[in-house]
Write a structure and sequence with these properties.
Structural class: alpha/beta
Distance between the termini: 58 Å
Number of helices: 13
Strand content: 15-25%
Strand order of the largest sheet: 5-2-1-11-23-22
Length: 440
């Protein structure tokens, strides 16, 4: 009787980020291909790019076409169904996920409003920036939450350089100035990457722009140091590396308002800027707030039990940035890619147990440290003491190699070792003939 119930079970996964996709693929490989589980991945985007890489797309240093993953193709290769659309609600009594109509760029309907039945629902919808209600952010600041955001920033940046080169009048006080609000991983990595790529864009023939004189990048952080979530030693090393690149870092600086050409601070200072990026704060998507009566915290995260089940309904699980999972006295598990990866792997082993009525194992987060990219040839990071005997802070090329290895591990989880090896070799060969920075 249990076997027949297991074979008919429907698993719906909402969100195709690092956690959702890494969960759907092995589950589909093992159970979807056999027809023992009906697995559906619901995601509003058509393709996937690892979120920690968005700053490289924004800066123009990464060819998105070589790294994006097509959901429809992945679903075909790995035994699950991909259904496009944005989740709008959950009916717990009918066990249904409600999905809005999906429209194309011209506003034409591609798919109608739909519902998907589930026996087990896994929410992996990620996170977004939190503007804390700061005036002007929605109207004047750009964000790096999606591929579209990253592409828009890159186009705006290149246009700003071309405009400055072509104009006959002196540059305005705000022109070619970049203000990045938030010195977490995204803000720091974007600042470091932009320092290099803006200079390469100018070197392609925009000789009326002096990068040393005209281009200025300011990193603004409300806390007393950059990377406040990481150890202080990492913060200090990062600030030194940023200073060597001429990036101005303002710590203990709280933003009061964002304007069209400036960022105003609470202490009265004004930072002129043509490009303003908001990379401060993290919250789960607003659609999760009070959804289906599930318990959420003040930043919309779904509160989960140690077994990753939501507190009020055992058939709904949450993983990744959208879940508030306890980490004991240290608060909640941090919203990092490694946490999403670990939770996806853990839940993959627990779903069959849940369907068979076997008690589930509790999830335990293992912090392996952090790595921050500071450009093509540099990074900074630390490894947790449990791995090396004492906390180890390192920087430079070695740290950069480790940073790249993490991405390769993620690619291997998606594509397998053989395919990743061949595609990496092809990219290395192509780099000899292609420009390092994309201009479109």
């Amino acid at each position: 009787m249990r076997k027949r119930q297991f074979e008919k079970s429907r698993i719906v996964i909402v969100g195709g980020g690092a956690g959702g996709l890494e969960f759907a693929m092995p589950l589909g490989d093992k159970y979807g291909r056999r027809g023992t589980l009906d697995i559906t991945l619901n995601e509003q985007n058509r393709t996937y790019v690892w979120k920690p890489k968005l700053h490289e797309i924004a800066a123009g240093s990464m060819d998105i076409g070589a790294h994006e993953v097509d959901y429809l193709a992945q679903s075909y290769w790995h035994g699950f169904r991909y259904r496009v659309g944005e989740m709008t609600g959950i009916d717990r009594h009918r066990r249904q996920v409600q999905v809005a109509p999906h429209l194309d760029a011209e506003g034409r309907e591609v798919t109608p409003k739909r519902t998907f039945d589930y026996d087990i629902l896994v929410l992996a919808v990620g996170s977004q920036n939190n503007d804390f209600g700061t005036p002007g952010v929605a109207d004047h600041a750009m964000k790096l939450e999606t591929q579209a955001d990253a592409r828009l920033f890159h186009e705006t940046m290149v246009n700003a350089c071309i405009r400055a080169h072509a104009q006959s009048s002196p540059l305005g006080v705000h022109q070619l100035k970049v203000a990045i609000v938030g010195a977490g991983a995204t803000g720091v990595e974007l600042a470091a990457e932009l320092h290099r790529t803006t200079r390469e864009v100018v070197a392609y023939g925009l000789d009326q722009v002096d990068p040393q004189k005209d281009i200025r990048i300011t990193l603004i952080e409300a806390a007393e140091r950059v990377l406040p979530a990481l150890p202080e030693r990492v913060s200090k090393e990062t600030e030194k590396l940023l200073a060597r690149r001429g990036i101005e870092v303002l710590v203990g600086a709280k933003v009061s308002e964002v304007g069209g050409d400036r960022v105003s601070l609470t202490d009265g200072r004004t930072i002129p800027a043509e490009l303003i990026v908001w990379a401060a704060g993290v919250k789960a998507p607003d659609c999760l707030k009070d959804i289906a009566g599930l318990e959420t915290n003040r930043i919309n995260q779904l509160v989960v039990r140690p077994k990753l089940q939501t507190t009020r309904y055992a058939r709904i699980f949450a993983i990744g940035d959208c879940c508030a999972c306890s980490w004991g006295e240290r608060g909640n598990v941090p919203p990092r890619a490694q946490a999403a990866h670990q939770q996806a792997a853990h839940l993959y082993c627990q779903i069959p147990r849940s369907l068979h009525g076997t008690p589930l194992d509790a999830y335990r987060y293992r912090d392996f440290g952090s790595l921050i990219s500071l450009g093509e040839f540099s990074a900074v990071g630390w490894i947790l003491g449990a791995l090396v005997g004492s906390n180890l802070v390192f920087e430079g090329m070695f740290a950069r190699i480790m940073y790249l290895s993490l991405y390769k591990m993620h690619e291997c989880a998606l594509h397998g070792l053989a395919r990743v090896t061949l595609s990496t070799l092809a990219r290395l060969i192509n780099r000899r003939t292609e420009p390092h920075v994309k201009l479109h």
